[in-house]
Structure formats: structure tokens, C-alpha cells
Specification:
- The complex is a heterodimer of chains A (267) and B (313).
- With 267 residues, chain A is an all-alpha fold.
- Chain A folds into two domains: 2-52, no CATH class; 58-232, MetI-like (MetI-like fold, Orthogonal Bundle), CATH 1.10.3720.
- Chain A contains twelve helices and no strands.
- Chain A has helices at residues 2-9, 11-32, 52-55, 63-94, 100-108, 115-129, 135-159, 163-171, 176-205, 208-213, 220-230, 234-265.
- Chain A is globular.
- Chain B is an all-alpha fold.
- Chain B has helices spanning 27-30, 32-59, 76-117, 122-130, 137-147, 153-160, 163-170, 182-206, 210-218, 223-234, 236-252, 255-260, 268-279, 282-307; strands at 61-64, 68-71.
- Chain B has a two-stranded antiparallel ribbon.
- In chain B, a hairpin with a 3-residue loop joins β1 and β2.
- The longest helix of chain B has 42 residues, at 76-117.
- The chains are: A mainly alpha (267), B mainly alpha (313).
- At the A-B interface, α2, α4, α5, α6 and α7 of A face α2, α3, α4, α5 and α8 of B.
- Chain B: The chain crosses the membrane at residues 32-54, 93-116, 123-143, 179-202, 285-304.
- Chain B: It is a multi-pass membrane protein.
- Chain B: It is found in: Cell membrane.
- Chain B: Residues 1-22 are annotated as: Disordered.
- Chain B: This is ABC transporter permease.
Chain lengths: 267, 313
């Protein structure tokens, strides 16, 4: 009875941890199976421990090429979407203009639409224009769907900004450019960084829109998709695990640095 | 909101405004918002809105790949597409709806845990929720093939607990298999979109003032009543945006159905993909995609109206 009551009082904690386990389990599997030596072409059943894939991560034809292509596309898409999105966010928060409602819906709609619809309609555009599918069509598509997310992230930050800080800067005879570079931009930076990070992650991992608009260009998700049909090399798991590890490392180091800076800032 | 109203703007250099005259910002400054908006909005118009127009026009065309397609206002494509593929639409909405409900049931306790119970573990758990994003979701979806493998630990446990008997009776699984059944697809959808449920839920839960809980307790509300009358209503914005962020992408997904399902679990996304990329029947594919868009937009609008939260963006 005591035990039952103890569990009942912590039911939320148990349920939450179960969900967390559900979320993490596939990553654990990916990690464990990066050390597998599978019997056939598919890496779904455990056979024996091996570090072969880790010692030769680029040993599969075309995989590292697709990875580097994905990184390039994600980088350019992030730059494009962040610049365009930040400009829109500033305009939306700081200025009054006509057609505000229409512009807001134009930004909201891409996020409220199944990806496959955007992917299919963009392909009809490219087909009608006779565009050559490849790097450029994928980049155009990625900038398009990342844009709205950047706008949302930057907008939230700029909205919570105290306008008096800029007024103070102007009162102290800072010109518009100086005010923007020395006051506005540094305050908005975390929002812009969050938007950029989101854009990078979305672009790097995008499959559906890329699948429609890439033609014969193969990004990393496209490579994984293809290998699900032809045979999954262990190296896919190595890349997945490495990306996971790098991300966790970056976050942990960032947290530690932030904590140290906070501690230093306190007297 | 209107940071660029005239009061703080420096006077124009050329003409000093006469006393008493209402100062208007110079034309150059009034155009600033339009210049800021122009490139991004143009991008969205050309690569998001215009494609929808092209898609609408493609859906009423007839013709063939060799001879080319012409607009013939052939609306019958829509009826044919609906008649042939309505099971896939029903399935998509059913799977996406089930996955959304499951995400809410699974995600709420975790969001609650992070917001109120995690203490110094909060950041770590948040990182663990977000970190899977950095492994390509296709790789993680493939991992479910291992987890749900025939004769594996999970299937064995479900069998031993007689869960499979129930799910077989409901038609979610077949025999002693979970892979290639509706259950596997819904399981994959739930997994893939769970973080999109947890994060908005967490954001809205985290904003709740802890003193409201104390007040509820002081007024002799039981924990259950406190949750029902205080916590849950206040987390509604998170529930609404979480369900939307889960349902919308899930309804158009074809990755889970392809990797974890069988031919009997095809969703409408699979049909659109194969019509566009393999069969190359563009009018049918465009009509299918347009119907999906309309259905989702109508459902979302009705839902937002009912839930009464309009400030989502």
C-alpha cells in the first residue's frame, strides 16, 4: 500500500520518464547498431560487435558526398532565410504599413500546410518553367520553408525588446545606422541565432520537399531513403551517432560557458 | 509597436519643418518597411503562393506526358481522385489524428515534469528532448524497424502481455507482427512528431505562475481539481499549437507509412508522391494534393475557432 501510494504520488514523473525513454530509445538503437557487423545488406538485426564502420566512415560510395552537399545547402539556406526572415520580422514589429494581415497570413500559411503539398506545388512550378531540378531548386525550396520559422523566432525577440533603449541611443546622438548596429542588433541577436539554428536543422534534415525537387541530386536524407530500399550501410548509423554526439557536446559546452559567464558577472 | 513614429526621428536635413506643421516622416523613411519586406515576401509569393496557383491549374488539365498538358477545366479529375483514393485520405486523417492524441497523452506528462518537477534536471531533459533532432529523422525511423522487429523483445513482450490479442482484434496488428501494420505506422508518426507537442506544451506550462497552484491548494482543491481547473486551462495555447504542429505534418507524411508500413497502410502522402514522381500523372497528383490542403486548412480553421486561440503566431 505504501509503495502504491508512493508510485501514485509520482505518477507524472514516471509517465514523463517513460515518454523520455520512448524519445531516446531510437537514438540508443542507432548508436548501438553503429557497432554492428550485420549479416546481410540491411543493418536491422544484431550479429556481432565491430568498429569497422567507425574506422571507415566514408567507406560507402556517395554517402560522404551527399553529407557534404547537405551541409552546403543547409549553410546557404540558413544564410538566405535568416537575412530575409530577420528583415521581415523587423518590418512587422517596428513599422505600420498596408496589407499587414495579408503578409502575416502569407508567413503563417507555409507552417500550416502539409509539407507534401508545398513540395508538390513547387514541383509543378519548376516543371512548368522547365527549370533544371538540382542544387538550386532545393536551395530555393529550403529558403522558402525556413523563412517563416526564422520570422517567428526573430519576431518574438524583437517584440519583447524595450524601445526606450533605442530612443536613449538616439538621444545620445547615435545615427540610425549606429543605433541599429550597436543597440538593436546585439539585443535581437539571440532571436536571430535561434532562428538561424532552427533553419539549419530544418534544412539539413529535410526530406519531403527535397525528395520532390532534387531531381537526381542526392542529399544525405535522400541517401538514407535510397538505402532503405537498397540496403542500409552501418556508416549511416555512424553519421547519425556522430551528429547526435556533436549536438549534445555543443549544447553542454554552451551551457557550461553561459554558467561560468553568469557566475563571473555576479559580484 | 510603432517605434519609428516621428517624435524621436531626427529632422530632415534639407527642409526644417515649419512650426505647428504636423511632421510626417520623409518619404524615404516611410518606404523602409516595404524595402525590408520586399525580398522575403517576394520569395514567398514566387515560391510558395505562385506554385499553389500552378498546382490549381495543373489539376484541371488533361493530356499526356508526350503531348503535353492543356487546361481543359476537367474537374472530373477531382472526383476520380477522391473516388479512387478516399481510403488513403480517411487513413491519413485517422493515423494523424490517433498520433496527435497519443502525442498529447505521452507529451503532457513529460512537459509537466520538465516545467514543474525537474528542478536542476530541467535543462538536461530539455536537451534530451531536442537532441534526437540532430540525428536525421529517417535514420531514427529506420531504428523502429529494429525495435519492432518480428520476434524481437518488444513484440515478444506485447505478445506475452496479450496486448497483441487486443490489437489484432482491433485490426491494428496482424498475427504476431507489428511491423508493416497500422500500429507500426502510428507508432512511428507519434515518435516523429512528439517533440513538436512537448515543446509548445512546456512553453505554456512554464509560464504558469506557481502561486496559482498554491492558491488552488489553499482553497482546498485536490491535485486533480487543481489540474482540471487551473493548470490545464492555462496550458490551452500549448495544447492547441502542439496538436496543430503534430497533426498538420503527420497528415501529409509518407515516410513512416513507407518505411514501417505495408501496401495496406499507404497514406495520401504516399499516393501524391508516387503519382508525381513515379506515375507522372500530374493532374491527378495536383488534385490529390489540393484536396489534402483544403481538408487540412478547413480542419485547422475550425479547430482554431473552437479552441478560441487566435494569437498563435
Amino acid at each position: 500500500m505504501v509503495l502504491l501510494r508512493w508510485i501514485r504520488r509520482r505518477l507524472v514523473v514516471f509517465a514523463g520518464l517513460l515518454t523520455l525513454a520512448y524519445l531516446i530509445l531510437p537514438n540508443v538503437i542507432v548508436m548501438v547498431f553503429s557497432f554492428n557487423d550485420p549479416a546481410g545488406r540491411f543493418n536491422y538485426a544484431w550479429r556481432e560487435f565491430s568498429t569497422a564502420a567507425w574506422r571507415d566512415p566514408c567507406g560507402v560510395a556517395d554517402m560522404c558526398g551527399s553529407l557534404s552537399l547537405s551541409l552546403q545547402i543547409a549553410t546557404w539556406a540558413t544564410i538566405g532565410a535568416t537575412v530575409l526572415g530577420t528583415m521581415i520580422a523587423f518590418a512587422l514589429v517596428r513599422y505600420r504599413f498596408r496589407a499587414r494581415g495579408a503578409i502575416n497570413s502569407l508567413i503563417f500559411l507555409p507552417m500550416a500546410m502539409p509539407e507534401v503539398v508545398m513540395a508538390a506545388s513547387l514541383l509543378t512550378l519548376f516543371l512548368n518553367l522547365g527549370a533544371q531540378l538540382g542544387f538550386w531548386t532545393v536551395l530555393i525550396a529550403h529558403i522558402m520553408f525556413c523563412l517563416s520559422f526564422v520570422v517567428t523566432a526573430v519576431k518574438a525577440r524583437v517584440m519583447s525588446m524595450d524601445p526606450r533603449l533605442e530612443e536613449a541611443a538616439r538621444d545620445l546622438y547615435a545615427g540610425p545606422v549606429q543605433t541599429f548596429l550597436r543597440v538593436t542588433l546585439p539585443i535581437a541577436a539571440p532571436g536571430i541565432a535561434a532562428g538561424a539554428l532552427l533553419a539549419f536543422a530544418l534544412s539539413f534534415d529535410d526530406f519531403i520537399i527535397t525528395n520532390f525537387n532534387a531531381g537526381s541530386t542526392v542529399t544525405f536524407p535522400m541517401f538514407v531513403w535510397g538505402s532503405a530500399q537498397r540496403g542500409t550501410p552501418v556508416q549511416i548509423n555512424v553519421i547519425g551517432t556522430a551528429m547526435f554526439a556533436i549536438a549534445v557536446l555543443v549544447v553542454v559546452v554552451g551551457q557550461l560557458l553561459a554558467r561560468r559567464r553568469n557566475r563571473a558577472a555576479q559580484p | 509597436m510603432t517605434g519609428t513614429t516621428t517624435e524621436a526621428a531626427p529632422p530632415p536635413l534639407t527642409t526644417a519643418p515649419a512650426a505647428g506643421e504636423v511632421r510626417k516622416p520623409p518619404t524615404r523613411r516611410r518606404l523602409v518597411p516595404y524595402w525590408l519586406l520586399l525580398p522575403g515576401i517576394l520569395w514567398l509569393l514566387v515560391f510558395f503562393a505562385l506554385p499553389l496557383v500552378y498546382q490549381a491549374s495543373t489539376s484541371v488539365q488533361t493530356g499526356s506526358l508526350e503531348k503535353g498538358f492543356q487546361v481543359t477545366w476537367h474537374f472530373a479529375t477531382y472526383w476520380d481522385a477522391l473516388a479512387e483514393y478516399y481510403p488513403q485520405y480517411v487513413r491519413s486523417l485517422l493515423y494523424a489524428g490517433t498520433a496527435t492524441v497519443l502525442c498529447l497523452l505521452l507529451g503532457y506528462p513529460l512537459a509537466y515534469l520538465i516545467a514543474f518537477k525537474a528542478g536542476r534536471w530541467r535543462n538536461l531533459i530539455l536537451v534530451l528532448v531536442i537532441a534526437p533532432f540532430f540525428t536525421s529523422f529517417l535514420i531514427r525511423t529506420l531504428a523502429w524497424k529494429t525495435i519492432l522487429a518480428d520476434g524481437g523483445a518488444v513484440v515478444g513482450a506485447l505478445d506475452a502481455l496479450h496486448v497483441l490479442d487486443v490489437t489484432n482484434w482491433l485490426g491494428w496488428t496482424q498475427g504476431d507482427r507489428v511491423l508493416a501494420t497500422p500500429m507500426a505506422v502510428v507508432c512511428g508518426l507519434t515518435y516523429n512528431f512528439l517533440p513538436f507537442m512537448i515543446l509548445p506544451l512546456y512553453t505554456s506550462l512554464e509560464r504558469i505562475d506557481g502561486r496559482l497552484h498554491e492558491a488552488a491548494r489553499d482553497l482546498y482543491a485536490s491535485p486533480a481539481t487543481t489540474f482540471r481547473k487551473v493548470t490545464f486551462p492555462l496550458s490551452m495555447p500549448g495544447v492547441v499549437s502542439g496538436t496543430l504542429l503534430t497533426f498538420i505534418p503527420a497528415s501529409g507524411d509518407y515516410v513512416n507509412a513507407e518505411l514501417l508500413g505495408s501496401t495496406d497502410t499507404k497514406m495520401v502522402g504516399n499516393v501524391i508522391q508516387s503519382q508525381f514522381l513515379r506515375v507522372l500523372d500530374y493532374p491527378t497528383a495536383a488534385a490529390l494534393s489540393f484536396i489534402l490542403m483544403a481538408v487540412v486548412l478547413i480542419m485547422v480553421t475550425v479547430y482554431i475557432r473552437r479552441a478560441g486561440t487566435e494569437d498563435l503566431v
